[in-house]
Amino acid sequence: MIILFGINQTIQSIFQNMLKRSKWRPIAIAVFAVLLLAVAAFFFFLMRLDVLTTDYLLLVIAVAVLFVYIAGVLLFFGMRRKRSPARRVRRIIGIVLSLVLAAAFLFGATVLNKVEQTKRAMIATPEESPRSVVGIYVLPDDAAKSLSDMAGYKFAALPGLGEEKLYANYALGKVNEALNTKVEAVAYPGIADAFEALKSGDVKALAVSKGFLSLTMDPETEETFGDALRLVDDIVVPRSATLDNTPILVDVENAEPTPVPTPTPEPTPEPIKYGEDRPLIFYLSGMDKYGKEIEYNAHADVNLLMVVNPFTKQILLVSTPRDFFVMNNALGGMDKLTHCAIQGVPNSIRSLNDLYGIQIDNFCRVNFTGFDEFVELIGGITVDNPTAFRTTSDNGGYYFEQGKISLTGYEALCYARERNAFGDGELARGRNQIRVISAMIEKARSNSASILMNYSQILDALAGTFETDLSSEQMSDLIKVALGSLGDWDIKSYSAWGGSGKGKVASMGSQEVYFIWPNERSVAFATELFDTILNNELITDEQLEDAPRAY
Length: 551
Description:
Elements: H1 2-18, H2 21-49, H3 54-76, H4 85-121, E1 132-138, E2 154-157, H5 164-179, E3 184-187, H6 191-200, E4 205-209, E5 230-237, E6 280-287, E7 300-309, E8 314-319, E9 325-328, E10 333-336, H7 337-340, H8 345-356, E11 362-367, H9 368-377, E12 381-385, E13 389-390, E14 399-400, E15 403-407, H10 409-417, H11 425-446, H12 448-453, H13 455-462, E16 466-468, H14 472-485, E17 490-495, E18 498-504, E19 512-518, H15 520-534, H16 541-545
Parallel strand pairs: 2-3, 2-4, 6-11, 8-17
Antiparallel strand pairs: 1-4, 1-5, 6-7, 7-8, 9-10, 11-16, 12-15, 13-14, 18-19
Helix pairs in contact: 2-3, 2-4, 3-4, 4-13, 9-10, 9-13, 10-11
C-alpha cells in the first residue's frame, strides 16, 4: 500500500513539473512534433500504396487534419494565460491524445507498408521465378529415400516435349552430383509411356516436371500419375540454366520428339495505364491445388477470359473448357488447354490468343486455398442457381437448391468444381464458374468500401495463393477504378462449347485421352463477342439469346 502511494505521488510530481509553463512548452512542441511525424509517415505509405480514389483520399486527409487540430488546441490553446486546474487537465488530455494518435498513425503506416510488400510479392517476376521444378519419382514400395540411395537406377525422362529436354538434363545432372557417378537415362514420348516403363521395371525412377504428374491417368477414377508414385526429391531449374550450359545426359533418340516451332520475336508493348478508356483482356486461371504456394508449371483447371471496357462500362466473361483441343505452342502439337499451363502461363495465353484471335493483356491466377479465403473475406457470395444438384463427396456432397443461394468460400469452390452432376459435365462446370465469378464481381460492386477496409486481410490471405503479372501501379489503378465506378458496370457472359473426342495429344505420348473438340460456331460467336466489346460496342441480351448452344 505504501509502495502504491509512493508511485502515485511520483506520477503526480512528474505531471506537476511538466505542466509548469517553463517546461510545458518544449514538451508540448516535442509531443506535437512526434504526432506530425507519425502522420507524415502514414501518408507517405498511403500515397505509395496508391489505392484510394480522390474522394476517399480527401476524406482521410480531412479526418487526419481534424485529429491534429484537436490535439494542437488541447496542447497549445491558452498557453500564455495563468495556470488553472482546467488548463492542466486539458494539457494532460492533449498529451495522451497526441501520443495515442501518433501510435495509431505509426501502426497504420506499418500496416500500409506490409500491404505494399505483400502486393508486390504477388507480382509474377519471370526473371526471378524458376524455369521449372523437376520431381524425382519412384514406385511407392521402392527403397530409395533420397538421391544418394539411387545408385545404379535407370531414369525415364521426356526430352521430346518442348523445354523438358533442358529440365530433365539439368535434374539428371544434379542426380549425378549426388551420386558422384553418371546415371543412365531413357527417353520416352509421353508421361504415360514413362509410367508404364516404370511399372514394368524397364526403369526404376522418373525425372519429369512436376506438372506432368497432375495429368489424369484414368478418365473413370480420375486417378493421376502422381497418386501412384512417391516423390524422392525436388530439383529447381533456375532461369540461368540453358542447353548451352547443361550437360546432355538424355536426348530424344527413341522418343519420337514433337517438333518445337521457333518463337517469333514480338516487340515489347508499352506499359498499360489502367483506368484509361481502353478495353482490357484478363486471363483468369484457377489451379486445382491447395496450400500457400503457387506452382509455375501447374495445369489450369479454370480458364476464364474477362474483357473490361471502361468506355462502355461493360464486362464480358468467356469460359473456355479446360479440355478444349487447342494448339500447345510449346510442344508444337494439339493438346488439352489445361495441359498447356504445364509449360507456363504464357503458353496458355498464347493458345487462347490463337483460338479467339485476341491479345490478352494480363493474367491473374489463384489456387483453391486463395479462392476459398477470398470469398470468405468478402462475406460470401449469392448465386442464382438455375438447376438443383448435389455435388460428389469429393466436392463436399452439398445439395444446392434451385434459385438464389448463399455460398461460403468452400461451398463456392465445390459449386464451381462440380461436373459429374450434369449430363454435359465440363461445359456445365464452365457455366457455373462464370456464375461464381459474376457473383464475386457483384459482391465487390456493392461492398467496395468494406473490401477496402479489409484490403490488408485480403492480401494476407491471398499471399502465396495468388499471382499476377500486373505491376504494382496497375494494381493500384484498377482498385481505384473499381472504387470509383464499379457500381455502373454491366456484366455479360458466354461459355464456349464443343463435342467429346478421344485421341493422342502432344503432352501424353502414346496414350489416348478425352478432350473437347471446339465447336466452330461456338468459337466464332465468342470471337464476335470479343470484337463487339473491344470495338466499344454494347453486347445486348438479344445478341446473347441468339448464341449457338449445346444445351
